[in-house]
Amino acid sequence: MKAKHPPRTRTAHLNPFAFEGGRPKCKFISKNTKYFVRQWCPADSATMNPPLHLRHGQDEHFYVVEGTGVWTMPHCDDPTKRRFMVSASAENEEDRRIFISFGEYHAFENVDPDQVLVIETRHEEPEFEVEETFFRNFFT
Question: Which of 20, 43, 89, 108 is the most buried (most CB within 10 A)?
């Protein structure tokens, strides 16, 4: 008996590309910009509110464009960084940025069901094409 695989969606020609019925989406900006991907994360999205994970060889930077999100780093030495909220309404631009060092377990989520969390992301030592391929394959 052969396993049935879920249907694949071709997304190489789409930017942004949407999934889960169209509300969550992902847009690749440019490898020459500070943040190379923008993500729209509704509170009820299974894929855009990722579980606890880590990056083995890259630091990760986030910037909150719209909405409010909660970041979790349960093993962080700094107790104030184990669970914290970041909002686009922060008065200070720096308070809208999140830095996750490589090897640090982390997760983020939109906790406001009335608003979509919009974030921009970049990774240190980015390989733009590899990152784009990963996200397109992961989300489709």
Answer: 108
